Amino acid sequence: MLNDVLFAIAMLVLFWDAIGLINRWYGLKKHGFQISPGLIMWRTKRGLNFIDRVARISKHGWRVYGTVAAAIGIFLMVFIFVNLIVNLVFVLTQPVKLPGIMLVYPGLIPWLPVVPWLVAVASLLVVHEFSHGVLLRAQGLKTKSVGAFGVVVMFGAFVEPDEKELMSAPSSKRLRVFAAGSMGNVIFGCICLVAILLLLVPKPGVYVYAVAENYPAENLTLGARIYQLDNVHINTLDDYYNFLENKRPGDNILVATENETIYATLVRHPENENRGALGLWTTSAVSGWKFANPLFTLGAAMSELLGDSVFHPYVYGLRVPWAAIEILKWMFVLNLGVGLFNMLPAVPLDGGYMMQAILERKFSKEKSKKAVRVLSYLVLVLILMNIAPGLMR
Questions:
Q1: Whole-model pTM?
Q2: Is 316 inside any structural domain?
Q3: Helix, strand, coil % (nearest 5) of the chain?
């Protein structure tokens, strides 16, 4: 882990050194770039006409979308804020320290491939900013430019509005604009999930997902289907867990897979010395209907981040190369995760500006700004405390 972090830092230093040299040699300012230490920003008017054309397709329809996005966004803002607090309580009280929030970068997450991450980040930025831009134009608000930026390790894209015009617009218009970006990411993430489910063919049965060294099952072949434990046929994960539930250390069992048959003597379970353990992690295909439950979908995205993959070639047949599934999977995870994270009531996140627009309906702009500023500091503390266990781990 330390080597990965040091390598990432070295690559980051080389990147910014290269940007400085390119700027010195080619004068990037005349091409719309703004360069300073640790900062690069590019502005252009290309793409504004396309945003206008999309907004003109149905201005009323886009406003309705913005209104629905704002209503759902307010609910999600409360949900994510409460969930952040609940996560923190769990992190502080459980013996196994898991992060409530994760930094999603290759290297920090070892199983995150670079190319799918880059594609996923690009989709995230394009969808988010395009959604903002369309709602701006559909409501008659100006867009000055589009562009991209990098600040040390954070990279992004933007549609630049006329700030004075936007912040003086009615709160209903601002709510639509700010909600549209994050809601666009959530919707796009769900579209990617549907594409994954259509492209994968679930395999029946239970499969060897991982094995532990120096445990009875350590020599089993990864990805092999488990057919039988003693005389019990294993068709579901419940069959597997129910069989082992009453087994004790020292019990001898037969394990039959598609590749081999072994006789294993169970050892003590690391979390319960009265239970027998094989040292075997199993997996099976998930029914697509389970994703109709939003909480299950959120849990699946978090499982992918934690390395406990829901979508695995062991348990699915493919209609496309697995590389395409990897890209779609991370597009789903990042668009859903970042879209929801952006709903937190803290500036400069969308949720912070939404909260400010909501408060302005009851209070003055100055009081609303102060309240959101205080709330933003609170959210920042919660975020840092949620992230810390993951970094320490």
A1: 0.82
A2: no
A3: 55, 20, 25
